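Hi all, a correction to my earlier message: I attached the wrong file for ATP adenylyltransferase. Here's the right sequence:
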Amino acid sequence: MASYDPDEFAGFEVEKGADFAATPDTFQRLWTPHRLVYVEDGQQPDADACPFCLAPGKSDEDALIVARGQHAYVLLNLFPYNSGHLLVCPYRHIASYDEASPEEVAEIGSLTQTAMAVLTATSSCEGFNIGMNQGQIAGAGIAGHLHQHIVPRWPLDSNFFPIIARTKAMPKLLGEVRDEISSAWPA
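and the right structure:
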């Protein structure tokens, strides 16, 4: 692991919520201007290189797919926030939820419910963050292909590592997590 270099964080500022105009809150803000590159540079793949279009053509193991439905499928996030971070994607290359057919919406919902049950059983998580970032401006890493995040959460799973060391500690390898979840997925 790289050593801590205080100069690397010299541009960071922390503001107290009480310093803002309007109704004060208890939040502090950590400004991370180095992440602006993700917003400004786009970081979007070409349409023919969409990872969510390419994944279903690969083996489940290679694509980290844990379950396939008729209109959508579930795979592990290659850059997870937590172990077991899943994505539910329609097979069809659509950018936003309002473009999804009723069948796709229903299956995305059903796969999300099943994923929650499987993650609870396999990892004993106690909660979830579930959401969709719609469009590049909203922070979608792959803005051209709709996908829903399912992030399992545990008490005290937040720590200083991602902020100070720019490292996310993942207790299991992606392949192990995929095998565990897909084995527990109902037939």
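Sorry for the mix-up. The CA atoms of residues 123 and 143 lie 29 Å apart.
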